[in-house]
Design goal:
three-stranded antiparallel beta sheet; 17% strand; binds 2'-deoxycytidine-5'-monophosphate
């Protein structure tokens, strides 16, 4: 493929971005970049350092100690934090809270910006996150904004956490989802808002296969018009 394809997928937590992005990557032969994993890895480092994730000045002093890399294996994207594969460790509810807090800190966003921009330029990619269509790939070929009702997203997340053995109630998960939506969309830097030219998919009533087929239909149509 001579010309690179770049697809941005944004949307709130639990909307199914990563599931969709992985399938699109597989279907179209693109590299899948999960940018939330980078914020999660920074969150994990901050948690281990015992720092307050809400205090920007504390976090800024830690950033030079952090080396992050993404590796691609048969199992998909792996996140390497200072040489350690932390891909599993960054998926807990506790680390999620740290990730949300550090993602609102301007120095953290700046720290991760260059790496994401570089990855966006190197390969044909499908990237998911919160500011992909607005900041990381404002010139992406296709920008999707994936949505689902808070109750639906909380239910999916609840099932995921339950399967991992975390003891939480669905009400707690819904409260956390709503809090995270508010924090992500109201922060000053790169808030999680749709790009002006994003195409919305609400998958509250769609299963994974239906969401994929809708997304592929939009992507193929958009690429046909561009090429
Ligand atoms: O997508 P996720 O749940 O793994 O994201 C974890 C946190 O990181 C979430 O609170 C939003 C934030 N994030 C962000 O601010 N920008 C991105 N591009 C990706 C994630």
């Amino acid at each position: 493929m001579n010309q690179k394809i770049r697809i941005a997928i944004d949307g709130p937590s639990g909307s199914g971005k990563s599931t969709l992005a992985k399938k699109i990557a597989h279907e179209l032969g693109l590299v899948y970049v999960d940018t939330g994993a980078l914020y999660r890895a920074v969150g994990l480092y901050v948690k281990r350092a015992g720092a307050d994730p809400a205090v920007g000045s504390q976090i800024a002093t830690l950033l030079p100690q952090i080396q992050l890399a993404l590796r691609y294996t048969e199992e998909g994207q792996r996140v390497i934090l200072n040489g350690e594969d932390v891909s599993g460790l960054i998926r807990t509810s506790e680390v999620t809270v740290y990730a949300t807090a550090v993602s609102a800190i301007p120095s953290v966003r700046k720290f991760l910006l260059e790496m994401q921009k570089r990855m966006a330029g190197e390969d044909s990619v499908v990237m998911d996150g919160r500011d992909i269509g607005t900041v990381i790939m404002p010139d992406a070929d296709v920008k999707l904004f994936l949505e689902a009702s808070p109750a639906k997203r909380a239910h999916r997340r609840f099932l995921e956490l339950q399967a991992k053995g975390e003891s939480v109630t669905e009400e707690e998960v819904l409260a956390a989802v709503m809090q995270r939506d508010k924090a992500d969309s109201s922060r000053d830097v790169a808030p999680a808002i749709p790009a002006e030219d994003a195409i919305f998919i609400d998958n509250s009533q769609l299963d994974e296969a239906q969401t994929l087929s809708k997304a592929l239909e939009i992507i193929r149509e958009k690429l046909r018009r561009l090429r």
